Amino acid sequence: MSAQDPVSDPAPLTSTDPAAEPADVRFLLIDGHAMAFRAFFALPADSFTDGRGQATNAVYGFVRMLVNVVQSEQPTHVAVAFDLAGGTFRDRIYDQYKGGREETPAQFIGQIALIEQVLDALGVTWLTVEDYEADDIIATLATRTAADGGSALIVSSDRDAIQLVNDAVTLLQPVKGMTELRRMTPAAIEEKYQVPPERYPDLAALVGETADNLPGVPGVGPKTAAKWITRFGGLEGVLAHADEITGKAGQALRDHREDVERNRRMNEAVRDLDLPADLARYGLGRGDTIALGGIFDDLAFGPTIRRDIPAVFLAPGGASAAEQGTGPEGPDPADVQRPTPEQVPALLRETFADGAALDLRGSWELGEGDCDLLALASADDLAVIDLVGLDDVAERAVAGWLADASIPKVAYDTKLAAHMLAGRALEVAGWRTDLAIAEFLCRPDQRPTDLPGLALRHLQEDLAASSAAAQQELDLEGADEGAEAERWARRADAVRRLEPLLRADLASHTVEALHDELELPLAGVLGQMERTGIAVDDDVLAELDAQHAQQQTDVAESAFSHIGGDRINLGSPKQLQEVLFERLGMPRTRRTKTGYTTNAEALEDLFAQTSHPFLADLLAHRDVTKMRQIIETLRRSISPAGRIHTTFHQNIAATGRLSSNNPNLQNIPARTEEGRRIRSAFRTSEGYEALLTADYSQIEMRIMAHLSEDAGLIEAFRSGEDLHNFVASRVFDVEPDAVDPAMRSKTKAVSYGLAYGLSAFGLSRQLRISQAEATALRDGYFERFGGVRDYLRSSVEKARETGYTETILGRRRYLPDLTSDNRQRRENAERVALNSPIQGSAADIIKLAMLRVDAALREAGCTSRVLLQVHDELVVDIAPGELDAVRTIVAEGMGSAYELSVPLSVGMGVGRTWLDAAH
Q1: Residue 910 pairs with which residues in a beta bridge?
Q2: What are the chain's domains?
């Protein structure tokens, strides 16, 4: 609310709702800043982020607290009070007020504004008043509520709120984190402080308040202050009889009388601010489901917290179906058809001849898929087919319907659906829409979600809740096939209703072609790669693990020898802090909540400063431990057939790059000897003669040259000279043959740093040079390659105007923080604006290449097959006699994937193992 002056006589609460009476009011009042700070320190900031560099832990914790309190206390009205920046009248009374507080943590900055946005979406009133604190807003509303016969609940960790407690006002004080609240009634306060609530400000004036930097009487604690207040009837009586109080405490009181009087003026709550008096302003049930979903999307909150928002916050009935965008009406899931095997052919031929949305009950693990229920949804019909009980005729009908490319099909995750069906030897063709891919293309920076999450986000329907209810029914009543059929029918129907919404999104974001022509067909290629997997020799991995285990023991023993033989836990931050900073007296690293950080970057910096042998061993121990963890994960992922079937994700990396998990094959280090040795365990398949690896050379820099149209970079690539040698000779103004390794290394770091949005500070850390030298190096680079400078500058400005960046294929990444008032968020967005077009274009090109290579291999009738894609590299299983043909196919497919202004260079290698095929 806007700034207003307090009035001497506060207006009573009124109501525009004739059914509401002030005496029935149960008003929940929350100290917004106090609880937001508490939430910030209760949850790790690094674990809660919106994906754009903004921490969201305070927002998440605050919303959880609000939900919990509303559910447990069931208030009729709610208000949240916040402080304003710039101080209050109390700062004019005492210029050191709150002066001892630490600087606001950088990760907290910006979160109050986000909390206010969530409150707006929830329909919860939040208030600020210029020159006054949140305490005064709460005091005014609590006083009004009690005067009108209602009751108030105050949620605050600020002890100044104690003075407001009476028979009608209760204080809920956080005890532990955000989950446990202590109920402070008049009796509880008197028991704890030995004074009634209205006398607590007198006690605080005598004792002082460290949090507010208000010094009290030296040597006077709460017990002494309470005894004085009881004896003399309050602070006025204490001060009036100050001469009667003997001893050092009495003298201290007399010496610090002015401080006590000032403290009492400071801690007196203002109870007569001019605040809105209409009860309807504070009522619940005014939330906007769509707005709330939007802000939760921006915050990258998952489906759980969305489901946990009580209906009491939301407007009755929510938004209309049209406003919610729930998609076209359809059949009632309760009327789902469950055909017998004899009915299946006619059902598919007559009812679903024009296509269907589908969902499957099944699994996919270690290269094996399976499913037993196939749910189909059209505009008029829902059916669930039991795949286990089909006869030959019905099975052929299902197989024919699935394989018919002329029949359009929709699924949440087409690749996963194909895996499940492949377990029953069923192939699918005719995919029209993959909801997970469509959602990602339209909202690449939002956290991926499952089908229930999409339904909650776009349809405002809780599929997870209905699934839980169905499961509870199954648990109670046994295997109710009807309930299960209805459950999967609901999911298939949600897929059906989501498709037009997401197709409209694809069109509005102009990424339909990316979905239809690149990502959707690529899902089929990736699915085949996942099912094929890659052969792995477990004996090689076991031998490597044994060697690493011995190395781990050796470096640990060496580390212990440098600290007097003490066998500490080298993985314990607490023990490392004691050794590094107490016993060894090393320079302190960045301070965190749990002490001085001992992360890898900090330890490497310490080692660069000190060269201490303990640090050398500690870093070596971490490296070998990481190698063992990678090997252990790989061994655990080997299927009974001796193959690893990783899962490729198209909707994780916002740049569009593929990611891999179960296991992650992209985190095997390729630049270290130990990492390369792991690749020796990956081998060609039985019946195949070799592995071929092919990757792009300097693709990011080639894309940089293409996008920037820099004549110097283009000349470097077209001339065929060593790129980094060429660039270094220009930057350092020397002949190419005079470029030394240090020059080449520095300019290479600048080149790739620019492609990745690296700042001068980041460059200085990477090269371990001063920031001034890094800035000079970057400026020298820009002087010689002005096209790069101009491109990078214009790309950020263009993104600031449009709100997004684009790749060469039109893949968008939305960056609203480019116009943020928060410097950290704005600078993070600027770095993303620099690197996303380059990284995303590289992703586009390798995906195009995969489609071309796969199509060419099939067209040529080759048995050879692509097994892996790791960053810009493809790994191909070569069938006997096909090496030369595959070389040509891969070279042409990758080299002509996209026409840049500079040639795409492809390197290849061949060998029996992934390591041997390196080049």
Answers
A1: 692
A2: 24-189+269-281 (3.40.50.1010), 322-530 (3.30.420.10), 535-644 (1.20.1060.10), 702-838 (1.10.150.20)
